[in-house]
Write a structure and sequence with these properties.
The protein has about 375 residues and is α/β, with parallel strands linked by helices. The protein has helices at about 30-35, 50-55, 120-130, 140-145, 185-195, 230-240, 260-275, 350-360, and strands spanning about 10, 40-45, 100-105, 105-110, 115, 135, 155-160, 170, 175-180, 200-205, 240-245, 285, 300-305, 310-315, 320-325, 340-345. Strands 3, 6, 7, 10, 11, 12, 15 and 16 form an eight-stranded parallel beta sheet that branches.
Length: about 375
């Protein structure tokens, strides 16, 4: 298991319940008991003198609790509060809290099943920014290397199905430009006006599905040419986004044999490699959230390519489900990258429902709030 360098964990003197005493798996049962009985407890790893000198004990003044955003005014967007609302106040650091892995599919004219409108998509980006969320990549979560500013919360963007609505090209004066009305175009435009956000997120690929769901469009569907497919994947990689396996053609893995499951996953990974040679595909998004009969095959397997006369292997470290709410912190001992829940956004759902719940005092989904120090894990 990858871990941070030796660190100190500081528990504020307001801790009164066992669930707030949960720390990393390296903590022993006796340490937890001590934490319950002490007013302020500092749990320290045992680094050498040089490391200890570089890792000061974290002490901070109590911060005000998060304030609830005002109710939306009549006539405002049903998805987010009115734009005039002031941003929430400061929050107490809690790096064992939860963070959202949001899930978009098609970004089109109107909301629907697996669809959000373009206006809603832009409003959801703005609402996440207003509430202090910062995009991170999957690799940063798995490696525990994300460096989120103090008071902020990580959010992982996931885009499933590789549809043209997510990423379209337009030919203009002999040049290919990103369609500003596609999800990628809108996201890149948002980043230009919000430089504190970086181009991060996870695109879960379908290389050979129907209706243009093949690396963001082919065969002239939605004006997209087959020859543009690999260029789009390469562009995303060059910008800093990450790539994820979503099977070859959105197969319902629960209905297939072990052999077919491995073929779907191996060929999905192989297609990504054809666009970005040597790319390490670390994540798999389950189509429809359906698991294969042999769940172990989601993490590792192989398929023999008769045409090329070679064996193609794959290895995933993270598996994404289709729903389930906010994910546990990677510093939480119960964090499980092999079954990561997500927050699906489509017609009939509201991003603010989840965000409001995470901001409630005593919520079951207490929000991850960074202390700004990547060498410490702050507890509430």
């Amino acid at each position: 298991m990858l871990r941070r360098p030796p660190h100190r964990i500081v528990m504020a003197n307001t801790t009164t319940s066992a669930d707030r005493c949960t720390v990393r798996a390296t903590c022993t049962a006796s340490t937890l008991l001590t934490a319950l009985l002490s007013a302020v407890v500092v749990l320290a790893a045992t680094p050498g003198p040089a490391a200890a000198a570089a890792l000061p004990v974290l002490r901070r003044e109590p911060l005000a609790r998060a304030t609830q955003p005002p109710a939306a005014k009549a006539g405002s967007s049903p998805q987010v509060p009115a734009a005039a609302n002031a941003p929430p106040g400061p929050r107490r650091p809690n790096e064992l809290g939860r963070f959202p892995i949001v899930e978009w599919h098609q970004v089109v004219e109107k909301d629907g099943t697996y669809k959000v409108s373009r206006e809603r998509f832009k409003a959801e980006l703005a609402e996440l920014h207003r509430r202090g969320y910062v995009p991170v990549n999957l690799s940063e979560i798995l490696d525990r290397t994300f460096d989120v500013p103090a008071g902020k919360t990580p959010v992982l963007f996931t885009f499933d199905d590789a549809s043209p609505s997510q990423f379209r090209y337009i030919e203009r004066n002999g040049q290919l430009i990103v369609d500003p009305s596609s999800a990628v175009g809108m996201l890149l435009d948002f980043l230009k006006t919000h430089p504190d956000w970086k181009p991060k997120g996870l695109f879960c690929m379908l290389p050979a599905a129907e209706a243009g769901h093949a690396f963001f469009g082919d065969k002239g569907i939605d004006g997209q040419k087959t020859g543009w497919r690999l260029k789009k994947v390469q562009f995303l990689h060059s910008q800093g986004f990450e790539l994820c396996n979503h099977t070859l053609w959105h197969a319902k893995l629960s209905k297939y044999s072990d052999a077919v499951v491995q073929e779907q996953l191996a060929r999905g990974a192989m297609a990504i490699d054809s666009a970005v040679p040597g790319y390490r595909v670390r994540g798999l998004a389950l189509p429809y959230g359906l698991w294969p009969k042999n769940r172990a095959l989601t993490l590792k397997g192989s398929w023999y390519d008769k045409k090329a006369k070679q064996t193609v292997s794959y290895a995933h470290e993270a598996v994404f489900e289709v729903a389930g709410g906010p994910a546990r912190s990677p510093y939480d001992p119960q964090f499980n990258a092999k079954a990561l829940p997500r927050v699906p956004l489509q017609g009939g759902t509201k991003l603010t429902t989840t965000l409001d719940e995470m901001d409630k005092p005593g919520s079951k989904w207490a929000r991850f709030v960074s202390d700004g120090n990547p060498k410490t894990v702050a507890t509430p």
